[in-house]
Amino acid sequence: AGQAGGPKAAAFQEQLRGTAPVNEVVDSAKAAVAKLRQDRGEEYRQHIEGVKQDKTVLDFGTIDKAVSSVKAIGTYNGKVTNPSAAETWGKIDEIVKDWKTSDPAKFHTPEGLDALKKTIGDVRDSSQFGTPARRVADQVYNAVKNEIVAQAPQYSKVMKDYQVASDLLKEMEKTLSINPKANVDTT
After folding, report:
1. Where is 140: in which H helix or E strand?
2. Which of helix, strand or coil describes residue 103?
3. What is the full DSSP assignment across 33-85?
4. Based on the number of CB atoms within 10 Å of its own CB, is 40 exposed (0-12), middle (13-18) or buried (19 or more)?
């Protein structure tokens, strides 16, 4: 700013001397992060179109195995030992059963399984990190994702790019303390 002079130097001096509104920098940072989030979404929508064009009907075998294998989490010999894990499994089991009985041409395609993954992700996000309930949801979520990747390789690149952008956004928000609960001074 010092080398550029002009408005940049004036803005820098105002912030340095404390004469500019404190929230000006915070608002600028929030706007930049919002723009990155918007760009990430546009990039995703642009590249997911190729996946949507793939009408291949995918197999539920691996997904069924994952749902069956996580049933034991939170139970012992048929008795519930962790009600939240059992409840999470029940929700996911119902979702998967509903998806399997739906029109394969719409719901068993890469796009359809991506929607299934998002639905399971919503259940996952409602469980606390590190709990058996979260482990149940994570394992089925990852099984759905892996099935799509195995049968529709283009999906892997789209999701990898989206994940890299999401991780970068999370890191920026964490580093800059950009969250609704943070004080302006903290941010």
Report:
1. helix 132-151
2. coil
3. HHHHHHHHHHHHHHHHHHHHH--PPPP-HHHHHHHHHHTTTTEETTEES-HHH
4. middle
Q: Residue for token digits 């996000």?
A: 125
Residue 150 gets which letter from DSSP? H
Q: What is the pLDDT of residues 98-139, one digit of tens each?
A: 999 999 999 999 999 999 999 999 999 999 999 999 999 999
Measured between alpha carbons, how far is 117 from 137 in angstroms, rounded to an integer?
A: 10
Specify the DSSP class assigned to residue 5: -
**Chain Cα centroid distance, residue 117:** 10
Least confident of 4-8, 12-16, 41-45, 94-98: 12-16
Contacts of 134 by beta carbon, 8 Å cutoff, 6+ apart: 88, 124, 127, 128
The CA distance from 64 to 182, in Å, is 42
pLDDT the model gives residue 183: 67
**How many angstroms from the chain centroid is the CA of residue 153?**
19
The 10s digit of each residue's pLDDT in 28-45 is: 778 888 888 898 889 888
Residue found under tokens 């706007």: 31
